[in-house]
Amino acid sequence: MAETTSAGPHGYSADKQALMARLRRVEGQIRGLQRMVDEDTYCIDVLTQISAATKALQAVAVGLLEDHLRHCVVQAAADGNADAKVKEATAAIARLVRS
Questions:
Q1: Is there a contact between 10 and 67 (Cβ–Cβ < 8 Å)?
Q2: Which of 93, 28, 18, 20 is nearest to 61 (CA)?
Q3: Can you tell me whether residue 7 is helix, strand or coil?
């Protein structure tokens, strides 16, 4: 399912702290959702917060995809090996669109 690639600097490496901050905010949203369910919060309010958390994760995903295109795909193209990276990015986009 998940393809393993080499460790090292990736497109998001320069903005890693900002990415981690966004993910921590999403984590907080999820904890808030758990609390809402535990407290028997009104269904529509829980669904609204689920939607917000989903959108936040989608924003992280789009940012990562943009970084991948700008860094990994561009580097592969410069090295003359763009086909595999473009195929990989296309598959990632397809997964995001389906979710």
A1: yes
A2: 93
A3: coil
pLDDT along the chain (99 residues), means of 10: 56 84 96 98 98 95 91 91 91 90
| Cα distance between residue 22 and residue 32, in whole Å | 15
pTM for this entry? 0.79
**Residue listed under structure tokens 């924003």:** 59
CA distance 87 to 72: 12
CA neighbor of 96 nearest in space, from 67, 51, 72, 60: 60
User: Using DSSP, how many helices (H) and how many strands (E) does the chain show?
Assistant: 4, 0
Identify the DSSP state of 5: -
Give the C-alpha separation, 74 to 52, whole Å. Answer: 32
Question: At which residue do the structure tokens 């993910």 appear?
Answer: 23
Task: Give dist(CA 32, CA 28) in Å, integer.
Answer: 6
